[in-house]
Amino acid sequence: MPSATKKVTVFRRGEGRYVATNARGGQVRLGNGADDDFTPVELLLAAIGGCSSVDVDTVTSRRDEPEQFEVVVSGARIVDEAGGNRLDPVTLDFAVHFKDTEEGREAAGLVERLVKLSRDKECTVARTVSADTQVVFKVDGQPLD
């Protein structure tokens, strides 16, 4: 059974360039936007879209293989009342289409319900972002004031 605690470690590769490594050895390059590496904000959008995609794809692909499965995730960068940067709103636009067969129509008929279920219950990433989640910053293991 996978651990309930999730963790990645971010290592510096060079100025403005990093690599995030998970416990299984998987890696993702990220940076400050000066090259083709994902920025942290782009990774956040990818994580939201990826999480919800898994929710929808896992169930629909049991019925039929999609002809198109695309999720465009976007977020408008704003400066909030406190002067802090954030995205609001974040939008996921699903384009999931199947062949015009009995199996394809069955899978297509599940898409809207599965997207809603992902939004309301299943997608840990989107639900964490939309909740009032505590984020604790530490330096050398000591929490900041």
Structure description:
The protein is of the alpha+beta class. 32% of the residues lie in helices and 32% in strands. The strands form three sheets. The protein has a three-stranded antiparallel β-sheet with strand order 1-2-3, with no helix packed on it. A hairpin with a 2-residue loop joins strand 1 and strand 2 (17-22). Helix 1 (40-60) packs across helix 3 (111-122). It is elongated and about 55 Å long.
Short description:
With 145 residues, this protein is an alpha+beta fold. It is built from four helices and seven strands. The chain has helices at residues 40-60, 102-108, 111-122, 124-130, and strands spanning 8-14, 17-22, 27-31, 68-79, 85-97, 138-139, 142-143.
Structural descriptors:
145 residues, alpha+beta, 3-stranded antiparallel β-sheet, two-stranded antiparallel ribbon, 7 strands
SSE layout:
Blueprint lengths: L7 E7 L2 E6 L4 E5 L8 H21 L7 E12 L5 E13 L4 H7 L2 H12 L1 H7 L7 E2 L2 E2 L2
Antiparallel strand pairs: 1-2, 2-3, 4-5, 6-7
Helix pairs in contact: 1-3
